[in-house]
Amino acid sequence: MPTPLDALYRKVTWRLIPFLCLCYLAAYLDRINVGFAKLQMLGQLHLSEAAYGLGAGLFFVGYILFEVPSNLVLAKVGARRWIARIMISWGLLSGLTLLVRSAESFYLLRFLLGVAEAGFLPGVLYYLTQWFPSWRRGRIIALFMLGLPLSNLFGAPLSGWIMAHFDGQAGLAGWQWLFLLEAVPSVLLGVLCLRLLPDGIAQAPWLSTAEKAQLAQALAADEAANPGGSRFSDGFFDRKVWMLGGIDFSILLCAYAMGFWLPTFIRDAGVADPAHIGWLVAIPSLAGVIGMLVLGASSDRRRERRWHIIGPFIAGAASLFASTFVGGNLVAIIALFSLATAAILGALPAFFSLPATFLKGTASATGFALACSLANIAGLVGNTLMGAVMQRFHSPQIALWLFAASLLASCVLAWALPARVVNR
After folding, report:
1. Which domains can be identified in the chain, with CATH numbers?
2. Is 329 helix (H, G, I), strand (E, B) or coil?
3. Phi, psi dihedrals of residue 305, rounded to the nearest 5°
4. Taking the model in full, what pTM does it have?
5. pLDDT digits (tens, 9 = 90+) for 106-129
6. Helical H runs in 118-238?
């Protein structure tokens, strides 16, 4: 039977999560458009597969270096202004990618884009801990992170359509229009952040004094049950945070590889039209939406986190491994990547609920950012490795085997997390 507090949290959810989900969707449009732009950029700019992989990966160098500092600034100046700054700056830099004329300029802009975007995901995750207690976060994080698969679900067909229909307009190639048009939502949403996003419970104009007190009381009770420290050092030097970084490394290694390279796999299976590729890429994304909603709700309902990571990882590893034996069978490629996407993205809500179960305050902000920083090394490693493997062997098989193995290795890390601490 729903309680008045449940109704209050539904109100908070409707006020915050749809907007934040849109922001996350806009962030991931960049991951999608660089994967689609590759289909034209390589030939027009005379880039090799390895050069593209390095450029895509350099984004993560900037992201990694500035992730923790960015989240600490957010904790000091407030979510509203800092998230707005992040979104506006990354939107502008993403749009400037249309000016790329060489491998070197591609490398530079990808690095600067990583610097600009650093702190967005861990910042929002930390922000959500200032509103929702631990036992509600799995479902809330799932709803927020729907922006990731939804960006593929809608962004992939949109990217393919832009490239097919705008190519040659006003003297710009399709890939240039792609970067220009898909940068606009980030800038507009960044401006809206300043108006729509309160820094915290106390600053929310749509909450009554009594409602603010109820939410604050629920958070205080949850924090009292949290055994962790609240200092920067508590978050930075906690062994469990570094273990989480290793787990998230595997998640992103596979997620980014699928996001950046799936359009290429589909093209190599015989689909030439960018618009058709876009619609096919959207199918695994729909599976990801289902996986996140089902597993996020299950994790909260059971108050169990570890097996909601381990089980999906095993399924995802098996799917990636099997995908290397289907050759150019388009149906099998889509089916296996759909299962892998549902499993890997389905583990995200349980995973991102973990840092705040044993950290709080500045330590929590640091822990989220450090885990994400360590994980985003996967973006550099995965894209560089995939590019090198594709150029050397003209097949992704070896890289996908390594990605599957990393998921299985992370099952050990997830099992090593103390159940009494993280299963809240």
Report:
1. 4-422 (1.20.1250.20)
2. coil
3. -115, -40
4. 0.78
5. 899 989 998 998 889 888 988 898
6. 120-129, 134-145, 147-166, 174-196, 209-224, 232-236
